[in-house]
Amino acid sequence: MIELKRLNGEIYYLNPLLIETVEARPDVVITLITGKKLVVANTLDEVLAAFQSAMRLFTPTQVAWEVFKNTRHES
């Protein structure tokens, strides 16, 4: 999990495997694989550093399984 800060200063935690994109425009916007967008008070560098640090804890197999599990669609 990565620690993030909402614009109101509230701290929350996000599973890094749910992140699809991170953009700075000018606020940092995180788009999840579900399509949901989160605007955070963290800088782009802070988000990327937290993401990279968290991802070191996962094996490639764990990452592949989580991505598969969170993106499969019901028929």
Automatic annotation (TrEMBL):
Any single Pfam family the record assigns to this protein: FlbD
Protein name listed in UniProt: Flagellar protein FlbD
